[in-house]
Records
---
Amino acid sequence: MTTASSSGSRPRRRPAASVFKAIPLIARGFSLLSPGLAARLFAYLFTRPMRQKLPRHEREWLLQSSGRPLRLASGFLLPLYEWRSSRLAAGVRDEAPLPTILLVHGFGGRAGQMGGFAAPLVAAGYRVVSFDAPAHGAAAGTRSSLPEMLEVTKEVADRLGPLAGVVAHSNGASAVIAALAQGLRADRVALLAPMPDLESYISRLATQIGFSQQVAVLAQDRVERRFDLPFGALKGSTLAAQLSQPALILQDSADKIVPLSEVETLAAAWPGAELQVTAGLGHNRLLRDAGAIAAVAAYFGAPTLR
C-alpha cells in the first residue's frame, strides 16, 4: 500500500521540461504532414530571440555605464550604453572626443554580455559603446534577424563616427563583417565565435530541433524573401576576402553552435586576420573569460588619437 507521505514525496516532472522534450516530436510531425506549415513555424522560431534574466555581473557592468536612448531613422528607440573614464580634470569631467570601440552582441544576447570588455578598454583610453538590438535586452520588439542586425549596426556605427574598433560576438560578428563590406569604418575588429555561414547554421539548427532539411530550405526562403537579401550574400568567408581591416578572431574548439572549421575558413579568407583557438569555453563563455578579455584588450592596445 502506498501511504500519503510516500506518494507526496514523488518528484514531479516540470511542465516546461516536458514541453521542450516534445518539440522534436512536434517538429518531425509537422515536417512530414505539412512542410509548408512547418517552414512557417521554423521561420518564426528562427527570428524570435529568447530574452533571459540579466545576471548580476552583467547588471554591475551596465551600472558602470551611462545609458541613453538612441532614436534610429525608423523612429525606433535603441538603448545605448557608454563607458568612459570618470577621472576629473580641474573638477570637470573630461568630455573631449575619445577613440571609440563599439561592442555588438549576438542573437539572443544583450549589451550586458559584452560589458566585461568595457573596463580594460576604458583603462587603455577608449570610449566604449554598446547597444541592445531590437527584441534584445531592454529594447522593444519581438523579432530579429541578421539582415535587421546588419542595418542597426551600420546606423549605430555611422552615428558614432569612424570607429577605432569593434568587438562583436556570434550573429553580431556576422553583421559586422557584412557592415564592413558595405563601408562601415573601423580601424580593426575583434570577433568572438563569429557565425560565418547563416545558410549552414539554419540547416544545423533545423536538424537539432527536429525539422527536415526540406523545411530548413523553405524557412530560409521565407526569411530571404522578407528582407530581399539571400543568405549567400552574407557569407563571411566570401565577404572577408575584400576586407583590409586587421581582425582578431577568437573561437573555441568546443563551440557547439559554430564549427571551428567554418571559422578557420573565414580566417584563411581574411587577409589581415589572426585566429586564436581556445578550449573548453564553448560559444558564450568567451565573453566573460578573463583570458579572452585580456587578449582583446591587448590586441587593441593604446589608442591613437585622431
---
Amino acid sequence: MFTGSLVALITPFSKGAVDEKGFEKFVAWQIKEGTDGLVPCGTTGESPTLSTEEHKRVIDICIATAKGTGVPVIAGTGSNSTEEAIELTRHAKKAGADAAMLVVPYYNKPTQEGLFQHFKAVAEAVDIPILLYNVPPRTGGDMQVDTVVRLSQVRNIIGIKDASYDMARPTLTRLRAKKGFLQLSGEDASAVGFLAQGGDGCISVTANVAPRLCGDMHDAWKKRDLDKVFEIQDRLMPLHKALFIETSPAPVKYGAELLGQASAELRLPLVQCTDATKKQVRDAMVHAGLLN
C-alpha cells in the first residue's frame, strides 16, 4: 500500500495563512498525475511553523481530498515532544489517515534508547500504522540500524523513511528487521540506489513538481525496465540537485509556482530562493521536460 512514489507535500500559503483551497487543488492534481501516496505535514510541508490547529487542518484537507481515490495518506505527526506527537497521531487516526509518519525528535538530541522509547510510546498510544522518519541533516540525530530493528518488532511500526544518505542501510535493515518492514528513501537523488539495496519506494520532494515522472520511474523499477528507470533518472537528476541548492522547500515551491500549481510563499525563518537558484530550478525543469 505504501510503495512506489509518494510525495512529501508542500503547504501552500497566501498572505501568511495556509491556502486551504490551493492545497486542496494541489492534492487533487497530485492524485490526477498518478502519485502513489500523499504525505502532508512533513519537513517539506513546513510543519515546524504550522500551529497545532493548522497542522491538523492540513491533514484533514488532504484526507478529504483523497477520499475514495485509493491513494493513501500518511500524515506527518512527529514532534520533539512525545506527548505532542501522540496528540497529533491521535488526530490523524480520528481523521482517517492510513498511517502516520514520525520524525526523529529534533533539538533535544535523545539517545538511541530515548528514540526507542519515544516511538514505542506513540505506537502503543495510537493504534495506527506508523512509519519512522530518520533525517539526520534536519534533526541533529541519527537513528541507528540496531534501533530501527528493535522498533520493527513493535506491532504497528511498519516501516521507515530514511534520509541518512547511507546506501548500506536498506540491506542491513532488511536482513534483520521483521519480514515486510517497509523502507522508503527520503532523498530523491539516491532513490534508485536505495531501491537497488532493497528499498520499497521514495517519499519525494521532486514529486511535488514531477509526480508523473517520479511515478513512471518507480513503475519501471517494479517491471525491472532498467533502461526506462535510468532514462527518467537522467532527466530528473539535475532537478533533484537543484531543489536542494537552498533549504527545502524554497526551491520546490518556486518550481510549483512555475507550473501554476502553488505559490512560492514560505514562512519565516525560511525565505524565497535567490535569483541564481531560481534559474537553476527553471533550467532543471526544462531539462526534465516539465517546462518549455
---
Amino acid sequence: MRRPSARGPRLRRRAALAALAALGLSACGRKAPAAAGAARVVSLSPSTTEAAFAIGAGAALAGRSRYCDHPPEALRLPSVGGYADPSIEAIVALSPTLVIGARGPAGSALDEALRGHGIATYLPETESLAQIEAMLAELGRRLGAAPGAERAIDRIRARRLAVEQAVKARPRVRVALLFDTSPLFVAGPGSFADELIRIAGGENVITRGGPYPSIGVEHLLALDPDVLLDGTAGEGDAHGAVRLSTLREAPGFRSLRAVREGRVRPLRTDVALRPGPRIGDGLAAVARAVHGDALALAEPAAAPLPRGGGAGREPPSPLAPPPAEAP
C-alpha cells in the first residue's frame, strides 16, 4: 500500500494470490511442532512487524516477510516470503505460536493453511485509524505488551490532534492519491489512505470503485484534482519517480491542472502508506503534501521507548519523525 495490505499498495502482487491458495491448502495436512514457553511470532506484513517492535514485543518475532524493513532490527530475522506468496514450510519450520499480518485478499486462504498446522493467526483489517489502533491494542494483549501498545496509540492520537488543529481553518483541497501508474491505481473510499486525506483537510476526488480502484487518465482528467499526491515511490526508490515523470508527458496527463501548476507532491515516506504504529507521522506527511510544506504542525513530545523491543537483543529504534514519504 505499499498498501495497501502490506506496504502500500503492492497491488500488482494480486496475481500471486491464487498461488498462495494452492500452496497453503496443499500444505494443510501436516501439523506444526508444538511450541512451548514464550510466544514465537512470524509477521507477514511490514505494519504488524513495526507494531510488534513499537509496543516492545520485538523479541517475540521469529520471522518476517521480505517486505518488512523497519526497524533495522527486523532485517536480522529470517524471511518466509511475501504476504501474498509466503512459504508455508518456512513458517512451520520456525515453530511459531502465532502468525500475524495485515489482512488482505489472501487472508482466508492463509488462515486456513496455517490453522491446518495448528498455528494460531491474527490477520486484522487495518483500513482505518480505529482499526490500526485496535490492531496495536490486540497485539499488546496477545504479546504481553499492553502498556507499550497504549503508548503507541497515544502517539497516533496526539499526532492526529496536531494535524486537525493545523488544518481546521484551511479550505479543503481536492486531492487524488496515486499508488501506481501502470495501470493507474488510486486511493478510493474505504481505504485508510482515504481517511488520512479527509483528516488532513483534503477531499478525495475518488468517490467510487472501492478502496484501491484502477482508473483511466480520462477519468482523472474529468475529476481534475487541485493536488496530485504521488505515492508511487518510497524512500530510496527512484522507479516511482521515473514512472510518474514518464506519465507526466503522456497525452492527457499533462493537461491536468495539478501537473500544469506544479502541484504534484511526493509522499516519499512509507509511514504515509503503511497502516502501522507510525501512521500518525504518515498523517502529518499527507497534511504537508496536501497544504504545502509551510503547514505548521506541533511536534509531539518525545515518548519513552518500550522495553524489550529488540529482535532478541536490542531495544527498538526510535519512531522516525515525519520526513520533509505511502500502502
---
Amino acid sequence: MIIKKPTLEKISPSFGSSILVRQHGEKADKNNAFWHFHPELELVYVNKGQGKTHIGNHLSYFNNSQLILIGANLPHNGFSDRLTANGTETTVQFKSNFLGDDFLTVPEMANIVALFERAKKGIRFQIDTKKKIGLKIEKLLEYDGLKRVLKFLEILNHLSKTDDYTLLNADGIALETNPQDSDKINTIYKYINANFSEHIALDDIANEVSMTVPAFCRYFKKTTGKTFTQLVNEYRVVHATKLLNESKMSIADVCFECGFNNFSHFNKQFNEITGKSASQYRKEIKHIIQ
C-alpha cells in the first residue's frame, strides 16, 4: 500500500471571487481525495455517506453526514471518494482575511475570529447545526458576487455562536505564516515534504532559502512559532498516524519510515504530540465508530 505524503494544494477562486465553493458527487475524481494541506480554511459538508475523517493527528469515522471546519494548513484527506451513490460533498475554501485584514479587527467580527482560532484544532459540528447549516452551504452554489459573500457570512456567524460542536484536537501540525512569508515558507514545507523520511541538515534547508543557519533558525521560529526540529517531528508524527491507520506495518517500521532513527525518541515524540503511545493509538482507531 502506498501512503502519500501531505501535498501543498494551490487554491484559486474564480476571477472576482474571494471564496471558492465546490461540490463533488458520486462521479468525483477519486484522485482529488488525497493527503494535502493549504493556507485556506475549509468548510466541508457531506450530506450523505460514510467514511473516514483524517485531519492532522485526528482520526474518526462517520456513518451518515458531517459538517467540519478545518483550520489553515492542517493536513487532511478529501472525502469525495468515500461517498455513497446518493451523497454529495460541498466545500468552501477561504482565507481568514478574505475580506481584508482590517475587517477582522472590527468588533462585530470577534466571534468569527474566535471561530477561526478554534478551527486550528478542527471542528466537527453536531446534528442540529448540520440540519440548519448544511442546506445553506449547498445553496451557496446558486449565488455569486456580493450575495454569495453575504450568505457565507451568515453561515460563519451562526457557526461562531453555536456550542453544538466538538473540537477534534487535530492541531499537531498547524503551520502559521504571514502573507509576505508564503513563498519562502512554501519552499521550506515542500522541502520537508520531500525529505522528512531522511535526516534534514540545517545547512541544507537554510541553503534552500539562501540563508545562513542562524538567520534561518531565527526566521523560522519567528514565522511559525516553532523550531525547525519541532515542526519536522510534528510532521513525521502526523504521517505516522496515517501509516498506523492505513498500513499493516509494525510500529517499529513506521518509526523508521517516518524519519525517526531512534525508537524511544519516536515514542516520546508521538506521545507528546498525540497524547498517547503509538500502540494505544493503533488499538483505539480499530474501535472507532462515529
